[in-house]
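tool_call: predict_structure(chain=1)
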Amino acid sequence: MFRSTILLNRGAIPKKANPLLRHPIFAWAGLRPVFGQHTAAEHEALKRWATQRSSLVEIGVAEGGSAMVLRQAMSPSGTLWLIDPFHLSRNRIINATKRAAHRVVGGCKKGSVVWIEKFSFDAVSRWHAPIDFLFIDGDHSEAGVNQDWENWHRFVVPGGVVAFHDASTFPGGWPEADWGPVRLVNRLFRDHGLAEWTLVEVVDSLVVVERLKKGCESKSE
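tool_result:
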């Protein structure tokens, strides 16, 4: 069994792994760490922005690498909602990706976790809770990420943040300029700027924007 819970650095490390171990069933069985979809620098940024947050939502969970980071950093009294339909498994009965995610996230007992096994556009239909940390890492088409933004950002409280993954190009990185998250972030926060929101950090492909508190808008103009 591996001591490390998460194998970081999207793409690069999994390609070096034994091909037989790439299947998520081995992460579920504890024979390899889960493959994190983020870099070490993004890992630290997620942890920093999630620290002591009390109402966190992640859209797109995969094997649970980033969800584990969020749970470790969140407030002990907080709640983490994890939204993913886990529909890409070739074996829906076993669904090793979902089982691996539950295993790794369940390894931390901090706060509480609510699993929502739905597409984000379905999950939002009954949503009413305020959010202070929203991580958008689901559908990467421009239409899909725009839909997640339009559906969910209204629940983010002033002082809360939205983190977009795969939303910025960087040297040696994987995102391309025409990727949906890149195009959305550029359009909303780089080209024109969006009222009530400000871009606060970019780390590799991770872009973090913050909802301004009341009274801050005039100071930034």
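agent: The beta strands are 6-7, 34-35, 55-59, 79-83, 112-116, 131-136, 156-164, 197-203, 206-211. Proceeding to next step.
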